[in-house]
């Protein structure tokens, strides 16, 4: 741990070009090895507790199975021409200079083994095509470098064939899990969720108490009893939101924002204590079965509560699972109201409410903020929103511009589908990877520094719980404050004026309330 | 003797190329994609996906956006190769199709484009440390093979003309299962030998990117997961999960 901390303190404050390509530094990150899971973390997920004796055999067989079961895995392993277009697209490579963090090199860690056992060339001419045997060193290398990939898919956008390193990294993690080598952070959390319904292990009682406290804060602030309902049967909308929204800043302020929007729209809504988590770490470990089990809770909660619609809160990978996978994993949702997308994103809901003129907005409430917006990878490259292609980029910006007077985008090649990862996605948001997280945030932070210099941007908004947590940790290393990252619905909450809200009294209340929550 | 050897070589190579690649394609097509993973912004309709793929194959759109140098060399090489291949149809048709005749003049210069493209790609592979790092011997050999084909071809065209009519007779013969005399000139033998090697390695090498591009789920899937339930065959066979919500345990 000591060297990690040392590096963390040395992180550069002022950096220049977000795309600056570092010198190759072989082995620079070879010792960054996230904590391994204990048996009690692996077993609840259906994986062996510890490294199997016949791990090699099992791993090779699993690789073959994945090639049969997943077209992406098979085609991507065959198709790469080593053109190099992806090599400078990964924020972890740009931040660390370790060549094994170049997307194609990351794929090759596994491709080289796949070739050895499953291709003609690799079987008979291994030296020619860089094929190698699966040894313990190789397995360790997989563990190291497949846990330095946030599965952000930026490399896939760059590749002429769309080769998605995230798919390879998910497959690699699944192989590792299958032989008993899990990652503590992800597997512990999934096990916790299976027990309590959320990543935090928050039980229903504690959750209810937290929500009641927040309701009080809201009433103090607005003078209006805005509710944060839990387990209300017969509500119209079930809100599925990341559990960070219940306890961390700036996430909570986002949750208050959803509540205000629902209140203003006059809809009945609820959260569920059984499915009190939008996050689905099953995706990070590439486990279809675990992802399905986690998603299944949402279906059961929706059925049990008898809701008509499902709305997701601000969470990046949860929205990818929600938008792209939920129907597959836990559908069909024929018991819900088919007039609305299933599921819907809170941004779609708020955007519609703005269009319908339901929200009364005072933009000047956010005048002290000069905003930019960070597109979260899973939202940007793994999902969509609204009725038009690219809605996942346009809707959040539209909502932001509707509630703020000052908005500037960062460099075009660092936003929308080219967005840089926050550096903490894909199951890497753990303190034992802090060094990697700080370095991986560099391209994003550099692009932010540019708009700070050019336009005086002082806050960045995001709609992902991981991004928010990551930024509040790493922004101080780059010369910002931890609260310079905001929830989009936090800004919505600031600007929305509820019916009956005393215009005088709430003049300076929002900041005061935000202070108190600490 | 030499003619027979080359005839057999070309029959074998053709079978390997067609059967091998066909088997690979069949495997790609058969393998399910368990989840919807189009890299967004992705088209929401099938037509949109066709259009997207057209842009990828015809213009290398993503490569253009991600790396201009590789794009330039890739376009020079591939479109040069396309023209050269079309031009080569004249050796397999009698009478030669009118449009093949039409492209003869450009076809000749296309070989220079190929050469420039290949040279650029090779240079990048050697000079750019990132690309050198990811290159295996096979990657250099592949470029060398293509360079060998192009250079021997250009040599026959521009330096040491060969009896091209006899070569044409040889191939027309092969297509009718008869072996005609192949002129034993070094240019011809080298060029054809390398082409046969290319055909043989096609289904076992990275040349599979050509069919592969049409099977990459990240590009070829329609972005409509919310509207249509996508379920793979194996996933539909998974044991059902329990219905309902279990009673909360005491004391929690
Ligand atoms: C659908 C058709 C095809 C598409 C879309 C396509 C696309 C590409 C792209 C984008 C690259 C990467 C850039 C580069 O390194 O040149 C590439 C590389 C390559 N392609 Fe193709 N290609 C196609 C067909 C073919 C065919 C039919 C061949 C040969 C028979 C071929 C041979 C190569 C070779 C050898 C490379 C590697 C060049 C290097 O080593 O840098 N391609 N292709
Ligand atoms: S998915 Fe993201 S983190 Fe992983 S290799 Fe690609 S660019 Fe890097
Ligand atoms: S861009 Fe695609 S084809 Fe090129 S090296 Fe990267 S993964 Fe391979």
Commentary on this structure:
The complex is a heterodimer of chains A (518) and B (252). Chain A is mainly alpha-helical. Chain A has 2 domains: 39-182, Orthogonal Bundle (Fumarate Reductase Iron-sulfur Protein, Chain B, domain 2); 190-505, no CATH class. Chain A has helices at 2-10, 39-42, 55-69, 71-79, 91-96, 103-118, 120-124, 126-129, 136-146, 154-158, 165-178, 184-196, 204-222, 251-265, 288-305, 316-330, 346-355, 377-382, 391-403, 434-440, 442-455, 465-474, 488-495, 509-516, and strands spanning 237-240, 269-270, 309-312, 344-345, 371-373, 459-462, 485-487. In chain A, the strands form 2 sheets. Chain A has a 4-stranded parallel beta sheet. In chain A, strands 5-6-7 form a 3-stranded parallel beta sheet, sandwiched between helices. In chain A, helix 22 links the parallel strand 6 (459-462) and strand 7. In chain A, helix 3 packs across helix 4. Chain A is globular. The relative contact order of chain A is 0.13. With 252 residues, chain B is mainly α. Chain B has a single domain (2-224), classed as Up-down Bundle (Fumarate Reductase Cytochrome B subunit). Chain B is 67% helix and 0% strand. Chain B is built from 13 helices and no strands. Chain B has helices at residues 2-30, 46-59, 61-66, 68-88, 98-102, 104-127, 129-134, 137-159, 164-175, 186-201, 209-212, 217-220, 233-236. In chain B, helix 1 (2-30) packs parallel to helix 10, helix 6 runs antiparallel to helix 8 (137-159) and helix 8 (137-159) runs antiparallel to helix 10. The longest helix of chain B has 29 residues, at 2-30. Chain B is elongated, with a radius of gyration of 24 Å. Chains A and B meet through helix 3, helix 4, helix 6, helix 8 and helix 10 of A and helix 1, helix 3, helix 6, helix 7 and helix 8 of B. Bound molecules: protoporphyrin IX containing FE and iron/sulfur cluster (SF4) (2 copies). Residues 89-90, 92, 103, 106, 149-155, 165-166, 169, 421 of chain A line the site of one iron/sulfur cluster.
